Amino acid sequence: MTRLPAVDTTIRDGQYRDPSNLGARIDLHRRFSTNGQGWFGWLGEQIDLANAIDVLELGCGEGGFWAANADIIPRAARLTLTDLSPGMLAAAKQRLQANLPGARFAVVDAQAIPFADASFDTVIANHMLYHVPDLHRALREIRRVLRPDGRLYAATNGERHMTELAELMRATRADAGAFTIDAAFSLEQGDSALDRHFARVERRDYVDSLEVTDPEAIVRYVRSTIGAGTLVEDQVERLRSIVTGTIAGEGAFRITKSTGLFIATGAT
Ligand SMILES: C[S@@+](CC[C@H](N)C(=O)[O-])C[C@H]1O[C@@H](n2cnc3c(N)ncnc32)[C@H](O)[C@@H]1O
Fold first, then answer.
1. Where are the alpha helices (DSSP H) in 16-85?
2. What is the pLDDT of residue 178?
3. Atom of ligand 1 lying closest to residue 132 CA
4. CA atoms within 13 A on the CB side of 251
5. Selection from 79, 94, 80, 122 nearest residue 18 by Cα
6. How far is residue 54's CA from residue 80's CA, in Å, rounded to a whole number?
7. Which range is least confidently modeled, 26-40, 128-142, 170-184, 233-247?
8. How distant is the alpha carbon of residue 212 from its chain centre?
9. How far is it, in rounded angstroms, from Cα 237 to Cα 222?
10. What is the CA radius of gyration of the chain?
11. Which domains does the chain have, with CATH numbers?
12. Contact 33, 257 (CB under 8 A)
């Protein structure tokens, strides 16, 4: 009998129980990013949707990619949007089903994809593989459901992504763990994981940064992260005062972003 994968319940029933935490983080990027194109718009340009028919998204969250790219989805495409969290999936369905009437929605763990071999030409895994307990199990599953000439589009962050927020957390003696990406699927090291399952891996970077002028947006962001439960009010107050002081002195609190996409094709 196949062993069932371990499910990270702190992810499914905690951090991503509903879209509120992810929403606070997306809001900071939407309001203060220096690259006006926006992440989802850039991603829509990288993914060859025009030639995609059977498309699977893993960890679709609230469906932000499809909301931003509704006008470039070809009529012939058959979309399957999935997430481990029933709450995230319900939010995606509510947000998208009027515009994507043919789309199928399902609760799916990327480590055990309940679809037939070679049933998709495109798999999208946008900022989610770094949450999966058994990365290689998920990559084997993705390779299995992709057709031989299919493509995986896997977005992730670099190891310096949001590094000033990690420093801010350390300055307030708070848990900075949420800002330390699991290196196994970072932008710097994800290609070596993908190389074990795919013949070709290409990396594309999205150039951006944040110039934040509202301290409360940073407070909301920090409160939305995994580990925020251990934050005490004194730490939040200290953090707010550092950010307010920086904005007063320098005009903005500047934050490094490092994010991008792997496109993986072929079989090993
Ligand atoms: C950072 S959010 C990204 C959501 C969406 N892709 C986006 O970019 O807006 C990560 C998502 O992956 C989901 N997720 C985490 N572990 C998963 C797993 N093992 N299988 C499928 N989805 C998972 C979470 O529930 C969450 O919705």
1. 20-32, 39-46, 64-68
2. 65
3. 19
4. 1
5. 94
6. 8
7. 170-184
8. 21
9. 12
10. 19
11. 9-265 (3.40.50.150)
12. yes
111 and 5 in contact (C-beta within 8 Å)? yes
pTM, two decimal places? 0.94
For 22, the token pair is 């992810």
Separation of CA 76 and ligand 1 centre (Å):
26
In short, whether 60's Cβ falls inside 6 Å of ligand 1 is yes
Residue of 62, 107, 131, 136 to mutate, ligand 1, most atoms within 8 A of C-beta:
131
Pairing between strand 120-126 and 209-212? unpaired
Q: Calculate the CA 100 to chain-centre distance.
A: 21
Q: What is the pLDDT of residues 44-95, one digit of tens each?
A: 999 999 999 999 999 999 999 999 999 999 889 999 999 999 999 999 999 9
Q: Ligand 1 within 6 A of 246 CB?
A: no
86 in helix, strand or coil? Answer: helix
* Atom of ligand 1 lying closest to residue 133 CA: 19
| Per-residue model confidence (pLDDT) at position 225 | 83
Measured CA to CA, the distance from residue 76 to residue 78 in angstroms comes to: 7
DSSP E strand boundaries for the chain:
54-58, 78-83, 104-107, 120-126, 146-157, 200-206, 209-212, 253-256, 259-265
* 212-250 pLDDT, tens digit each: 999 999 999 988 887 777 778 888 999 999 999 999 999
Q: Which residues make Cβ contacts (< 8 Å) with residue 83, sequence separation at least 6?
A: 16, 58, 59, 60, 61, 89, 92, 107, 108
42: Cβ–Cβ under 8 A, 6 or more apart, which residues? 35, 206
